[in-house]
Amino acid sequence: MILVGDPNVHNSDWLGGLFNSIWSAKVPPKVSIAAWRFIMNYVPTFSNLSMRRISISHQCLLCSDATETNVHLISDCVFVKSVCAGLGITLPFRSTEQDWLFWLSLLFKGIIKSQQRTLVVIYWAIWQTRNQKLHENRTKNPVEVIQFVSSYLHELDGLDNISHQPSAQSPSQWQPPAPNSFKVNFDASYDKATATSVSGGLVRDADGLIMAAFSCPNRFVRDPEAAEAIACFQAISFAKDAGFRRIVAEGDSLVVCSKINRQEQDLSRISPIIFSIKEKAKGFESITFVHVRRELNRAAHALARFGKSFSSTQIWLEEAPPVVEEAALIDRWWVNPPD
Ligand SMILES: [Zn+2]
Q: By C-alpha distance, which of 49, 75, 51 is closest to 63?
């Protein structure tokens, strides 16, 4: 099932509601990110690995009773069900025909905020438990996981502030977003002869790691400025469909960025696109538009160029084409700071 569709396609409200519950849970970003990845099937469960032909075993490491897929782990696994039950969350029945993601959205909708938080922590803990079994052959039973989750929640209650990364950064470098938000860089390549453009955009977390990326070809584009504005629109639409609710959108077109940030109505040729961007922006919990120099937008620039070789929209999850990965690596300057 494709969750992150074409940037032009709107996902239904229930999916947005589900993502919102996950991102707004009061847990450290590493927990909500892990839970999100787990749910979105971006983690290498065995069935994912076998699709990539790295076959090992297919049995669920927790219950040994079924094939390990994320659908199994989230809605069907007896081990997971008993952990949830032990923490006061009863998983409703899911018939095999029911879309499991829709089922999950109903589950989140039917419980209160504090339980939603518990569930996010459970999914994170389940994934850790499963990995400890796989890599360290350490086995935990449901009771131990229940104890772990309870004491972790207890610890969170005692914390006033979620830890913040120091933000001493040089403005001459790409800036990572704050720990509870994501940065979306966008750019466009434009071909005057054919009046076509390719938009490219990528979402990164506070560690500068790529969460998702896309490229998208466009026809009937008047000029480079329109191409940049379209790229901005498609990038924030993409981020929204992928469930990111707090973002910083960053591009290297000063004209486009300042038009978006201006209060009064834009009356230029690209005003319809600027208007659409502002409308789309209303769907975020928090969004800011930032202009950067071209050199600092290198990853999105590489994507917009790379996308030229495709006639349709391309989407990458948790990775990007090598040229883009390389650019993103340079952006993570603080990981290997120069002397
Ligand atoms: Zn299982």
A: 75
Query: pLDDT for 300-328, tens place per residue?
Result: 999 999 999 999 988 888 888 989 998 89
Spatial separation of the C-alpha atoms in residues 313 and 304, rounded to whole Å: 11
**Looking at the whole model, is its pTM more than 0.85?**
no
pLDDT of 96-123, one tens digit each?
Answer: 888 888 899 999 999 999 999 999 999 9
- C-alpha to C-alpha distance for 289 and 257, rounded to whole angstroms: 6
85 CA → ligand 1 middle, Å: 15
Nearest Cα residue to 125 out of 30, 21, 229, 242:
30
- Strand, helix or coil at 300? helix
CB atoms within 10 A of CB 273: 23
Extract the tokens encoding 311: 């006639």
The residue range of the domain holding 265 is: 182-331
- d(CA 66, ligand 1 centre) in Å: 6
Contacts of 8 (CB under 8 A, 6+ apart): 234, 237
Measured in Å, residue 281 CA sits from the centre of ligand 1 at 40
Is 175 part of any domain? no
Q: Is residue 251 part of a domain?
A: yes
Q: Tell me, in angstroms, the distance from the centre of ligand 1 to residue 94's CA.
A: 15
Give the distance (Å) from ligand 1 centre to CA of residue 99. 18
How many whole angstroms separate alpha carbon 16 and alpha carbon 242? 9
Number of domains forming the structure of the chain: 2
- Report residues near ion ligand 1: CB below 5 Å: 60, 62-63, 77
Amino acid at 25: A
User: If you measure from the C-alpha of residue 192 to the centroid of ligand 1, how many angstroms do you get, rounded to a whole number?
Assistant: 55
